[in-house]
Amino acid sequence: MTDATILTIDALKERVEAIFRRAGLNAVQAGALAGVITAGERDACKSHGIFRIEGALRTVKAGKVRPDATPELAPPDGSAIVRVDAHGGFANPAFALGLPVLAERAHALGLAALVVNDCTHFSALWPEVEAVTAEGLAAIVMCPSYATVAPAGGTRPLLGTNPFAFGWPRRDSDPYVFDFATSVAARGEIELHRRAGKPLPEGWAIDSEGRPTTEPEAALAGAMLPFGGHKGSAIGTMIELLAGIMIGDLTSPEVLDRLGSTLLAPMHGELILAFSPEAFAKGRPGDPIARAETLFEAILGQGARLPSQRRFAARANARAQGIAMSSQEIAQLDRLLAEGLDAVAWD
Amino acid sequence: MTDATILTIDALKERVEAIFRRAGLNAVQAGALAGVITAGERDACKSHGIFRIEGALRTVKAGKVRPDATPELAPPDGSAIVRVDAHGGFANPAFALGLPVLAERAHALGLAALVVNDCTHFSALWPEVEAVTAEGLAAIVMCPSYATVAPAGGTRPLLGTNPFAFGWPRRDSDPYVFDFATSVAARGEIELHRRAGKPLPEGWAIDSEGRPTTEPEAALAGAMLPFGGHKGSAIGTMIELLAGIMIGDLTSPEVLDRLGSTLLAPMHGELILAFSPEAFAKGRPGDPIARAETLFEAILGQGARLPSQRRFAARANARAQGIAMSSQEIAQLDRLLAEGLDAVAWD
């Protein structure tokens, strides 16, 4: 990038936060959103970086997320469930509010759950997973999305791309983290094929009649397919049940009904499970954190990668050398700061 | 089946239990094993039926499971973790011992975990899942296996076929249940292709050099592949971490080292998570059990099936009409009863 501007991670975060403040988000919403967007850029995960700012602003402009919401932690009830009501705001500050209590409960009881209700989920799940692993806990995180995926054997959109994410804490390394859609591909990948005029790989999608298609337009009018056939479909359904219905929040078809569009960030709930390896392994032979390293070494030793390896390498690089932003990206940030909600269309 | 003998479910269970008692299993081990084997026949799930008796006896004869073990429940410690030490016996009676305490804890805390240690896992995970759903709880159950699956991008066996199972309670129907291997295929399916002299479908396995193969012999000498590429591989790894390492029990490579064979039932631990939908949904709009029915209707309404549907249909049939066993199967049961451990070879 010959025209690159190098920003520190903190400097980028300040710029993104200023954009959200200018667009009317309160401090807690703007700070949390700027944090995850900056984390995406830091990790060279461009699809979760500043590219997402306009989607967030569009959702605010459409009136589908409350920019001034203050998340609220439910009073402790002695159970293993920690609840945060996002009050219609973004999930990210609600998660941040619940995290310390989740960690305390998981260390005390061995496992605990954080339920975030009435939130607009924004961006990936790995920021949540990593925050839990930083507390010395393993994590499973999931949430519904909007109905764009047909169940295996079905013909119409019903499930969401329902991400499933997991993390395991490591002592001297970045955590073991994965975070993936339970559809074969993300909806954005189909959109990218459409723009490029390229056919889709086989097995990604069906058309509106339920027939396999490699046409991006037909796929967008039809449905995406779950990863791994009936197995991925079952996991996607489990996510609707646990992270939608069980926590008393919306399922993917209900989200789509409520929003009327897949161009806005989805509103629903999120389920975060935290496990204390120390508590689970108590009284048993071996240190679980050390034993896990043996497994990771065996995976790496046969030439396979650990998930998120590339992200962590980019992160180390960004910490040492800053983040390179193109002049086009800098101009985009300047424009968003200058125009606020006028920068995006919604009607 | 023209030569079929019709047995009631209870009559078959008595016969199987007698075989295990004759082979030296104590009452608690024999009863639990007979229960799951009879459940397999009842559900027309032949691969988990009486076919499995010899494998259990072979594992006893090899000295890799204690036929006289009495599982022991750890004293309650107020946490969300319930622990049962199987003391080297089968997992099934240990699970049965822990289940009521797991249910009590999950109803009290919202979620809880049952850890079974030092057990030989036997047969499928759906019996455990169904037993948890019968308590009005949702369940996730997982355990390692032996190292027969290469991680995505790898070349050698490391992960197990690591089953992942889930259940959701329903009021007026059999529960929603899935239970699948995180490999593309079960090892037994490759063995069946070998015996039939048929090539494997593409994508099931790699040879001992890490190259894709459709030769069953080469696959058995090489490694199976995870379902869904890197996503299934990640879930298989999660199961090693949570249901092996975290609970202080063996990973799949350690199991294979310990047993030296994939012909014996695997010894390790098992992790059962139980969730109370009632507790999670408390204070939120809607009844989760009723809302789930809307989701199931939408799946069925587009011609897709719910997992386990065929099993439940066979079960209803067996309850009404008994279980048809061929004369060959009856002869096999008679022989096993007469010969006890002499019926199987192990050295």
Topology:
2 copies of one chain form a homodimer.
Chain A: E1 5-7, H1 9-22, H2 27-42, H3 53-61, E2 72-73, E3 81-85, H4 91-109, E4 111-120, H5 126-133, E5 138-142, E6 164-168, E7 176-180, H6 187-196, E8 205-206, E9 212-213, H7 216-221, E10 223-224, H8 230-245, H9 252-259, E11 267-275, H10 277-281, H11 288-301, H12 309-321, E12 323-325, H13 327-339
Parallel strand pairs in A: 3-4
Antiparallel strand pairs in A: 1-12, 2-3, 4-11, 5-6, 5-11, 6-7, 8-9, 8-10
Helix pairs in contact in A: 1-2, 1-13
Molecular structure report:
The structure is a homodimer of 347-residue chains. Chain A has 347 residues and is of the alpha+beta class. Chain A has 2 domains: 1-61 and 309-347, Orthogonal Bundle (Hypothetical Oxidoreductase Yiak, Chain: A, domain 1), CATH 1.10.1530; 71-183 and 226-307, 2-Layer Sandwich (Ribosomal Protein S8, Chain: A, domain 1). In chain A, 44% of the residues lie in helices and 15% in strands. The first copy, chain A, has 13 helices and 12 strands. The two termini of chain A are 37 Å apart.
Task: Write out key terms for the chains shown.
7-stranded mixed β-sheet, homodimer, Ribosomal Protein S8, Chain: A, domain 1, Hypothetical Oxidoreductase Yiak, Chain: A, domain 1, alpha+beta, globular, 13 helices
> Quaternary arrangement of the chains shown?
homodimer
**How would you name the CATH homologous superfamily of the largest domain in chain A?**
Malate/L-lactate/L-sulpholactate dehydrogenase, NADPH binding domain
Number of strands of chain A: 12
Instruction: Write down the Rg of chain A.
Output: 20 Å
Q: Assign the CATH architecture of the largest domain in chain A.
A: 2-Layer Sandwich
Strand content of chain A: 15-25%
CATH hierarchy class name of the largest domain in chain A? Alpha Beta
Largest interface by residue count?
A-B, 71 and 71 residues
Sequence of secondary-structure elements of chain A? EHHHEEHEHEEEHEEHEHHEHHHEH
Query: Stretches of chain A where pLDDT falls below 50 for ≥5 residues?
Result: none
Q: Provide a count of the helices of chain A.
A: 13
First-residue to last-residue Cα separation of chain A: 37 Å
